[in-house]
Automatic annotation (TrEMBL):
Keyword Kinase in record: no
Membrane topology category: Multi-pass membrane protein
Name of the protein described by the UniProt record: Putative RDD family membrane protein YckC
Localisation: Cell membrane
Amino acid sequence: MPQNTPPSRFGDLAPSRYPGERLGLPEAGPRSVGRLGRRLGAIVVDWALASLISLAFFHYDSWANIGIFALMQVVFIPTIGGSIGHRLFGMRVVALAGGWVGVWRPVVRTVLLCIVIPALVWDSDQRGFHDKVAGTVLIRA
């Protein structure tokens, strides 16, 4: 954006150089945005754990699988900072406003994640719609 042009009412629309720059996060290392490879690895681990539990107790019922996956997200994000997969891949979920992520953010984030489509819609900071609505960001620990 040229120097003399005031920012639009929608904020600075200039492209960022790297994911997380607009959020004040570093380009790489601790506190940088968790990238796609780590995210995919984490969700595979979480889904596999939910599948194993579903197989053991519910003979692999698909609704039980989704319920177990959701429960793991809702319980572990506010308590250990992320799901088991997030933690294994060196990431954690934080509130953009700072402080404790609380209880409602993981619930909203998880409901939208289980719908799948919001997780496939990303912004330039590599935050899925589920993170944007919940006011969270997945960062490297």
